[in-house]
Amino acid sequence: MDSDQLTELILALQMIKGVGPKTVLKFFDTVKPRLILENFRNMHRNSTINRRINEGALDYQKWKSMLADARELMEKTRSYGIQILNYQDADYPDNLRSLNHYPLIIYVKGNVKALQGPSVGFIGTRRPTELGYKMAERMAYQFAKDGLTVVSGLSVGTNTAAHTGALKAGGTTVAILGHSLEQPIYPKENKDFAQEIIDNGGALMSTYSLGAIVRRQFLAARDEWESGLADGLVVVETDQNGKTESALQHAFKQGRPVGMLDHSQCPKIDDVMKIEQAIGNQEFIRKKRAMPLWDIDSLHRFEATMTKSREEFLKKSKRHKRLAEIRLF
User: In this protein, which residues make up the domain named Smf/DprA SLOG (predicted)?
Assistant: First the structure.
């Protein structure tokens, strides 16, 4: 079974109501993908799919139509200059594959190699303080100078500052989007900026197939992959609506190191607790759940921590890949 056949099968299976990545991998544990393509009877061996067959929602002809739709989707996606990677492809990011939960298919515009190698994620409020914006740009600049790819979400505010810092350093940056890649860029004010990222050796990535317009839940869901794609996560400043907190929790669950801008080290700030965007950071730093970031030495310490963690992620990724190969072959 080649890469395109596996991609086609995954896309078609996920067209079945109630079938997502976990169901697909569980099915592959039971039946090798090649046999699923060869004999429709094997579809009965998955309880979710068997239920759809018994309900009359799926039969042999409908399944053949789904496979044809999957092939057409692949062709149309590529016509937009979008690359499709399944979780077994060589260019699929090792960091994503190291997760307990990862997307089976990702879509990439630009340099797919930008998704590999040492990287650091940036999150934070869309309304940072002047200090927060400047420090996001400066930290991203330094990380990029040190050879790390900067991963963020292209939103205004903190994300834009991080991408900008990486580009100013002549480095590479990746933007993870909450819509499919043929759609107009969100936010619209960053349309030209997105192209600049691609033109400078970076990439846009999405887990959404053609036709997925930007939605609030899609923007929230992509937070999981911002930390998952990176070796560690930098939180510049937090908001009060819980969005940054939600993204941060993904990093903790994934075992990613977390660093936070430490406003208390700024000599111009008398009372850091009067800065709304800094309160969350101070709490996590105080509890030692995040490393304080301010000067270049603190950034280098965080880099060393990420390097050590990356070694563990890569081992886990290789184990997942070997297990997947057993399923497939």
Answer: 84-299
